[in-house]
Amino acid sequence: MALLRSVIDPELGADIVTLGMVPSVTIEDDGKVTVGVKLTIGGCPLRAQIKKDVETRVALHPGVRSVSIDWGEMTSDERTQVMTKARWNARQQAPDTEVPVSCRILAIASGKGGVGKSSVTVNLAAAVAAQGFIVGVLDADIWGFSVPRLLGIDDRLEAEHVEGSDKPKIIPNVRTIGRGSLKVVSTGFLVGEDTALMWRGLMLTKAVEQFLRDVRWGELDYLFIDMPPGTGDVQMGLARMLPRTDMIVVTTPALAAQKVAARAADMARRSFLRVSGVIENMTSFTCDHGQSYALFGEGGGQALADEIGVPLIGRVPLEPAVAAGGDAGVPISLDGVGPAADEFRAIAKRIIDDIAPPTNMAGCSARMLTLVNAALDAHQANAS
Description:
Layout: E1 8-9, E2 14-15, E3 24-27, E4 32-39, H1 47-59, E5 66-73, H2 76-92, E6 104-109, H3 117-129, E7 134-139, H4 147-151, E8 158-160, E9 169-171, E10 173-177, E11 180-186, H5 201-213, E12 222-226, H6 233-241, E13 246-251, H7 255-270, E14 274-281, E15 285-286, E16 292-293, H8 300-308, E17 312-316, H9 320-328, H10 332-335, H11 339-355, H12 365-383
Parallel strand pairs: 4-5, 6-12, 6-13, 7-11, 7-12, 13-14, 14-17
Antiparallel strand pairs: 1-2, 3-4, 8-9, 10-11, 15-16
């Protein structure tokens, strides 16, 4: 049941246990687990997402062999109780973070530095935004921030008073990309690019908490988090504050990098985060005459994916154009040509279509909640 509390109903803004959507859990001696889940509406389009989240979270528990779901539909009275809870939460309880519950959160992580994690984060975020989505980029690599340069943004972050808050909120820097947009936050917008941040672990964690709680993110479809390398305070803080986060692990083909990256996946699972896949970066270098060279070895990405039981979702070749685009603040995934640009766009499409599809908010109980709240507000306005 504790694991199931990390499964959030994106429409109602609370976990499925608190909302009373889990009437039963059956555990058999052979490790088969059956979770009863009652939906507010049987045909809810979020059913597939809830199914995936329940299965992946419960499967993390030692001894679980298989997970199945026994679906049900709430009675009218049960639905009324859930809607009452959701409305009370929305009106009376401030959210733990400013990240919308409907936002898909992807932490891009690595076991060690130097594998191109920040470049992968920026290129994937830009490629997803180019498909018409509102995408946040949180540079959680507090010491080694590089996102501002990679995106060509150097504006300072400003704070403004916003409606419903008793203190100013930080406003992200925004960059329009095609039909979508990027909302970007980094410590690089607070200090100079050449300034060394000599902060201990507690300050690092507090900085990430501030970026999640005190930034006015507003509407978001996706949030990409560029994680610091390793398995330290920031990673543990993120797991506590955003338990619905999916992690993508970046490695190079080298065996040493693969073994170190496995520790990042182990940390995620010990924190009950879902590891969605592996990206192998800097796979090979191809000369103008067509000969390819595996400068950093071969097979590390697939070996890591096999070891931790997740898909290898992309292999990005080593190309000078990727670094040149980063230095110029123009991600190659936008208008670049060549195998690396194509691969970044292909990975972004796979994220949208399979790894973390955008939340479909149409047709479920949240629409009823919105209508009820609107009617109540209109009634109170007329009464006054």
